[in-house]
Amino acid sequence: MMRFVDSQKTDQTKKQVSVRSRYPHDSPSEALAEQLGLSLVTEDQPGGSGLWLEIGDRGLVLRDPLEPRRVISTAFDSKRWQVSRRNPLGRAIGRGVEGVVDATAGLGGDAALLVRMGYRVVAIERSSILGAMLSGGVRGTKWEERLTILTGDSMTLLATLNPSPEVIYLDPMYPSKRRPSALSKKSLRVLRALVGDDPDADQLLLAAREAASRRVVVKRPTHAPPLGAKPDFYHQGKMARYDVYLRGAF
């Protein structure tokens, strides 16, 4: 759930996150901090401020020092594997679709749902921190068979995908306190702190409509206006609306 973070925002984000090592000379944590350009703090001398990024038993997790017992992780640990396509999202994606690109991956909740619905998914996340969490969450698991993680700007990457994506799915952050979300309030606050409110989401929609071979699906709060142009049609769910933009209809 994020996109379009300029360099100043990225620098500010990295100042808010530190890699926390479990012990001195923790080589994996040191390598992670160097890879992401983050500061390194130790368990006995935490220092720093903001969030901690840690290497856990199931991949990378974020922890708030003010609430150290609670961790935020990616969405790839659910025991429920198969999900029917007979729901508003499945109807919005359409029949006969094999692959979907989630261009606003965030913590991977929507990408995980799409995989469970039987699609092959490419998930794109611009934040290097969230991208590392996503990659670590699927590495060495059954998710790797149907889910590919790309870290970078969707505006650039969508045009380079070959073959062209059948369907591109967008769920940009919506700057409203009433936004419904499957994420906990804590997770949503962390995402906002990392990625902001997607002020250029309308530009991402234009890029997605250029890149998709069949359609673009945009998830919106039920009360929200469409993102950009009026959609060709939509499917209404209990907590969200899925606006559909067909290829060739603009």
How would you describe the overall organization of this protein?
The protein has 250 residues and is an alpha/beta fold. Helix 2 (27-36) links the parallel strand 1 and strand 2 (39-42). It has helices spanning 7-16, 27-36, 88-93, 109-116, 128-138, 154-157, 185-195, 201-211, and strands at 17-21, 39-42, 51-56, 59-64, 67-72, 99-102, 120-125, 147-151, 167-170, 215-221, 233-236, 240-246. It is built from eight helices and twelve strands. The protein is elongated. The chain has two domains: 7-72, no CATH class; 88-246, Vaccinia Virus protein VP39 (Rossmann fold), CATH 3.40.50.150. Helices cover 28% and strands 26% of the residues.
What key attributes describe this structure?
single chain, 250 residues, alpha/beta, Rossmann fold, five-stranded mixed sheet, 28% helix, elongated, disordered N terminus
Concise summary:
The protein is α/β, with parallel strands linked by helices. Helix content is 28%, strand content 26%.
